[in-house]
Design a protein that fits this description.
The structure is a homodimer of 340-residue chains.
Chain A: E1 5-11, E2 24-30, E3 38-48, H1 51-56, E4 76-83, E5 93-96, E6 103-107, E7 114-116, H2 133-146, E8 153-156, H3 164-173, E9 177-182, H4 185-193, E10 199-202, H5 209-219, E11 224-229, H6 234-242, E12 243-251, H7 269-273, E13 277-280, H8 290-302, E14 310-314, H9 319-327, E15 334-338
Parallel strand pairs in A: 8-9, 8-11, 9-10, 11-12, 12-13, 14-15
Antiparallel strand pairs in A: 1-2, 3-4, 3-6, 3-15, 4-5, 5-7
Helix pairs in contact in A: 2-3, 2-8, 5-6
Chain lengths: 340, 340
């Protein structure tokens, strides 16, 4: 019997500044024999996420840096194609952290490595997006940090992304005014028309602080009570000028600084003047909320009350370009690579 | 009967940049006749506080700006010298918000305007400092925002001030390592020897970020878990580099920006990287904690367990110069003006 070959993307080098395709290397390796307790998963979808950019650096960050010459880490959704574990059967649909490759071998005994999912009511790919890490990220930041009351105004940057679309829809469900920031008229149109945000500001039309701050003032006539931060930099400066007293800011990402550019906060005194709360968080450190969050989000998705979009690249070869596009905001909604 | 004359300091003009003595005007007015329900208080001590600098500006801030040509507002401690209220008798020792003047007439019916205090176990002046607003400020930021556990490291800037001295002592009482930042070797010596901090860094010896960050690293070998912020600017930048994961920062003051200088936070991404919580607060908005805080602090002061220092200027005429000195860090502990 010929061995199955497994195409894998490794990190070949660390970027200095903006990453390029040259930072990645495609290799091919035979799928190893399964040992007792192990499961072979064929990945149908790979997840691409902004946090992976941070892991490409070697500096101090919350996550361990991605090791050089090792397979890029990341979330995956697929099907069990061989099993030496009583816990998983061939044909089971599963999500895990298989990384940028076509197959992964998983030790099923290790808790949390692999999770069976129901694909009757929810498509498999959604478990990497709205019903997965990005969705729980939105849920956590909104419910546990911003904790908005009905009638309050919630702003979210990267509003058309996998996290942002969920933040706005959950805020609307709580009776809040939801205002997004996204790049380009088409994204803004869909954020409002499809995802139900009250307004969406095209940040590309506002290249300076004064202009962006004025746009926020117009879109948020009662000020801003909660802000879900995905980008940092000038956007954060502009939002800070419009925050109401006792406002809450969930710091989830600062993509504008991922390539090492300085992204100073120009008026931190506003934290004091407006008695704000800012809190950074990483959803993987709050596993205790995942069951509740996934139950709520899964129910909303299964009944069509929570919408999502996916940007799907085809084939393992497309992963680096799709990832670099994600970092430039070329995606709409969850960025995936479809392998099967 | 000749009328009693009351010397008062008014705000004559708003400062552009650093305030000067010319921004204040000394006037003299007769003490008005008391109406029913009113009390005449002769001030023994006037409080001078950094927040008053913010109120001299006309811009957006948490407090209403100080009105021009009106008596400067502020805390006072004194004695009732005439009363048309059943609630106060001549001879009562009281604290209130009498402002920069020798006497004030208070409507005793308005709740919270005037409070009788016990001067048997606690000196009258302490009610403007450790057993008053600055002490409760320290208590709130430490207990309600930083909430340190025994063994954690707490850093406080302006450590020799009315608030900072209390923060460090309360942190030590909780079993924390307390590290102060103060200006000059003498202040640092007293912060350690008299107030019991583990270390105190003389920020004047560290004029750049790298040097101050290194000094913090040396003084906080296990990193920083809680930071009580009174100054802002480069100090905050340096502390952010040393914060441990899940650290908490109570934002109480940012005196380095009070004259309008830019005080950018250069690496706000550290809030995310280290999953920090930053919270601005103003103690007068949390009156619900005052009884508990004052009871705890008062007990510690009365039994000699909580120490304090006062910088006392003599006579109403000295108020502006004492205030300008406070803004330059010339005080040690609570800055007062003694009137009687």
């Amino acid at each position: 019997m010929t061995k199955t070959l497994n195409k894998q993307w490794q990190l070949a080098s660390r970027p200095s500044g903006e990453p390029t395709a040259d930072n990645f290397r495609l290799v091919e390796a035979p799928v190893p024999e399964l040992k007792d307790g192990e499961v072979l998963v064929r990945h149908h979808f790979m997840s691409l996420d902004p946090y992976m950019r941070g892991r490409m650096n070697d500096g101090k960050s919350y996550a361990q840096p991605q090791a050089l010459d090792a397979v890029m880490g990341g979330g995956t959704a697929g099907e069990v194609v061989a099993s030496k574990s009583a816990a998983f059967a061939v044909g089971d649909k599963v999500v895990g952290m298989g990384g940028w490759q076509e197959y992964s071998v998983v030790d099923a005994a290790q808790p949390g490595m692999l999770r069976k999912v129901d694909t009757k009511h929810i498509p498999l790919s959604a478990y990497l997006g709205t019903v997965g890490m990005p969705g729980v990220t939105a849920w956590y930041g909104l419910n546990k940090i911003i904790a908005p009351k009905a009638g309050e105004t919630v702003v979210v940057s990267a509003a058309s992304g996998a996290v942002g679309t969920v933040v706005g829809q959950l805020a609307k469900a709580k009776g809040c005014r939801a205002v997004g920031l996204a790049g380009g008229p088409e994204k803004c149109r869909v954020v409002v028309e499809e995802f139900g945000f009250d307004e969406c500001i095209d940040y590309k039309q506002h290249p300076d602080l004064k202009s962006l701050s004025a746009a926020l003032k117009a879109a948020c006539p009662k000020g801003i009570d909660g802000y879900f931060e995905n980008v940092g930099g000038m956007t954060l400066d502009a939002v800070l000028q419009r925050m109401n007293a006792f406002g809450r800011i969930a710091m989830c990402g600062m993509i504008s600084g991922y390539n090492g550019e300085p992204i100073p906060m120009t008026q931190p005194q506003l934290i004091l003047v407006s008695r704000l709360l800012l809190q950074g968080f990483i959803v993987s450190e709050h596993m205790e909320v995942w069951p509740q969050a996934l139950k709520e989000i899964g129910g909303l998705v299964a009944t069509g009350k929570l919408k999502y979009r996916e940007s799907i690249a085809e084939g393992i070869e497309s992963a680096p370009q799709a990832f670099l596009g994600l970092l430039k905001g070329k995606n709409f909604g969850k960025q995936l690579v479809k392998l099967v």
